[in-house]
TrEMBL record:
InterPro entries: K_chnl_dom, NAD(P)-bd_dom_sf, RCK_N, Trk_Ktr_HKT_K-transport. One of its GO terms (cellular component) is plasma membrane. It is a multi-pass membrane protein. Keywords: Ion channel, Ion transport, Membrane, Transmembrane, Transmembrane helix, Transport. It is found in: Cell membrane. The lineage of its organism: Bacteria, Bacillati, Actinomycetota, Actinomycetes, Micromonosporales. Residues 134-253 form the RCK N-terminal domain. PANTHER family: POTASSIUM CHANNEL PROTEIN 2-RELATED-RELATED (PTHR43833), POTASSIUM CHANNEL PROTEIN YUGO-RELATED (PTHR43833:SF9). The chain crosses the membrane at residues 28-48, 94-116. It comes from Allocatelliglobosispora scoriae. This is Voltage-gated potassium channel. It comes from the Bacteria.
Length: 340
């Protein structure tokens, strides 16, 4: 049964940023190592000025006496049975041993201090992140579709810092953090959650929800908050495509229908299905690219271009190869390319 905190997190959204965490055991061992190094340095300093110290027990300063004095001094215990008596020894205590004592104590209580200041540091990081968040890409759903969409955009030149993931599942939010992406645990159908991702300044929103009804609701909310961003969505059933188009989605991918078409092609010609798979996987074999028509290409037909043209983008619409006619200024060509 979901707790109240889980429900509030889904409603309002909880932001988590990726960070490198050190194992607690490693932190403890590292602190112990630093403490031992400071203890050894203090022993060496005391022995260099051993003639300036007085041992009330036997008057001589041995290595054991120096270790004992360093231990009680750094730990601020100070029994007073060994004391600096010369000016040089006292100056050494003021200039060297006292700073070491301060660092030593700070090191020992560092874990507690780190816990107490962690919330403040997290808030500073969060505010800094949100202040620089603009022109980014929001990915709703970090399943296979969302993850693959991010990897495709990164392969085409996007930076990992440009992405923000929103998901209802905590395990997928944690996975996104491990992969290096900021993530929000929450319900993307709610405007409060989308605002935490700064949707009003987003350049693109990719809706890769598990359910079609969720995809429609997310798309409606996104378009209400940001009428200008590029909004694409994935659904399972083709009958819901018109709902998303009416919601203002720029492009709708029907996963079930597309998979069915690929299965049909593979059943008829497995070799042709491999070509489709090649096109779908960016950076391996064939790729799809988009570019503007050059001045020399204006007035020519798509078949006259140097590279294979499969569609022409004109006036915000994709025209099939056979319907494009002569190329005009402002057209964009969709090409089949191959990595160099």
């Amino acid at each position: 049964m979901a707790s109240v905190s889980d429900h509030l997190g889904e409603t309002r959204g909880h932001i988590s940023l990726p960070e490198h965490r050190v194992q607690p055991i490693k932190q403890i061992l590292r602190r112990i190592g630093y403490a031992l190094l400071m203890l050894a340095a203090t022993v060496a300093i005391v022995m260099l000025e051993r003639d300036g110290y007085k041992d009330n027990y036997d008057g001589d300063m041995s290595w054991l006496d120096a270790l004992y004095y360093s231990t009680v001094t750094l730990s601020t215990t100070g029994y007073g049975d060994i004391v600096p008596v010369s000016n040089a020894a006292r100056l050494t205590n003021v200039v060297l041993i006292t700073p070491l004592r301060i660092v030593f104590v700070a090191l020992l209580v560092g874990t507690t201090f780190e816990v107490l200041t962690r919330r403040t540091r997290d808030l500073i990081r969060l505010n800094r992140w949100r202040s620089t968040l603009s022109g980014h890409t929001i990915v709703v759903g970090y399943g296979t579709k969302g993850y693959t969409a991010i990897q495709t955009l990164i392969a085409q030149g996007s930076e990992p810092e440009e992405f923000v993931v929103i998901d209802l599942k905590r395990e997928l939010v944690a996975e996104a953090n491990r992969d290096g992406y900021p993530a929000i645990h929450g319900d993307a159908t709610r405007s409060a959650v989308l605002r935490k991702a700064n949707v009003t300044n987003a350049a693109r929103v990719i809706v890769a929800a598990d359910r079609d009804d969720a995809a429609v609701l997310v798309s409606l909310t996104v378009r209400q908050l940001n009428p200008a961003c590029v909004l694409v969505a994935s659904i399972r059933e083709a009958e819901n495509e018109q709902l998303l188009l009416n919601a203002g989605v720029n492009a709708v991918i029907t996963s079930a229908e597309a998979a069915g078409r690929l299965l049909g092609v593979a059943a008829r010609s497995p070799a042709i299905s491999e070509v489709f798979n090649d096109l779908l996987i960016h950076g391996e074999g064939l790729d799809l690219a988009e570019r503007e028509v050059t001045a020399a290409e204006v007035g020519t037909l798509p078949r006259d271009c140097d590279q294979p043209v499969i569609a022409v983008l004109r006036g915000g619409k994709a025209l099939p190869y056979a319907q494009a006619g002569k190329l005009a200024a402002g057209d964009r060509l969709v090409l089949v390319t191959s990595p160099a």
